[in-house]
Amino acid sequence: MRTNRGKVELLAPAGNMEKLEIAIHYGADAVYLGGKDFSLRNFSGNFSLDEMAEAVKMAHSRNVRVYVACNIYSRSSEEQAIARYLDALGRIGPDALIIADPGIVAMAGDRIAHIPIHLSTQANTTSIGACRFWERQGVSRVNLARELTLSDIGEIASQTSLEIETFVHGAMCISYSGRCLLSSFLTRRDSNRGECSHPCRWKYAVVEEQRPDMVHPFMEDERGSYIFNSKDLCMIEHIPLLIGSGIASLKIEGRMKGINYLASVVKVYREAIDSYYENPEGFTVKKEWLEELSRINSREYCTGFYFDDPDSVSPNYQDERPGTIHRFVGKIVEKTGPQTMKVAVRNRILVGDAVEILTKKGPAVQDRVISMIDKKGLDTAVAQPNTVVTMTLSRDYEPLDLIRHAEEMTYTGGRRSGD
Given this structure, which CATH class describes domain 9-172+230-313? Predict the structure, then answer.
């Protein structure tokens, strides 16, 4: 396996402006986002053209790259609208477009050749021959199919000048390269058009044709059956192998996930990547990384197809994990004085509550709420969701640091599968 020519990129999702700020704050090198149309995450908030221009400007001011997803499989009736959209993106100037549809690839190459094209995983690129084909079409980076092993990826990376990008963390679609029709059939929401209703997460049972009133569960489990439900991907323990394979960009899934998830995952992978480059030979996985990732997920983790391990890609029949998942309290929006800061509250919090603050570096900091003042300038003992208070803690923190309830964080032992 060859080594990357430069430091591997950490690529994070940004479903809206707030998520963009959080991704940048916790250390993403690049973000991917979508517009209101022609993106595969129609329910993530997304960006208007004006918002996208603002997002690109803000990210570039912090030396962060922006990739815009235009990765639907289009219809003929949309051709003119897509052409206008590409022209607008050409004026905004993101660092690349993420595209799956060959027709949109060709159109982008003709209309906005100055914007690089990254091929979406939806194109299910699985071979060096396919990579060479896409390179001839003007593509500069390929997000390889998630079905490939790390050995397959290393072989492809060693034989092409294309940049190679792969997913390293987040939800995995049970369908081949994410191209599923289940949502279309059951809810008339096309997953290949950004409207997936995630029916693979639903509970199912078998009904025999001649006995329609008899429902048979797939397994003896009071919670029901999860015949499609895949585990979530987590490759934090394998950073050296990922980098050594020649991958240029490590991508985190989750444009529809909240900022609590985003902050934790970006922070952990940022620290792991930096730790590797500081001392490649002495790289070790820190317990605090595993602990942090265990707190934000309700499904088991696995290593996907990377190591050709059947257990890592089998359905996940357990929808709960032992222990508790911590509760996100709020986001620091402004520092107002020594140990005091304005906080946008997302969940109820009381004076005296034990909290911990997720800072940009190092383990989360344990603290306690000393006092709170409401928007009228009055002392308050409780802050409700969707309010803003001035909070006093025992230390100083930065805007965009997140606050969580410390007492709800029971360590579950980290990863339970795919180790």
Answer: alpha beta
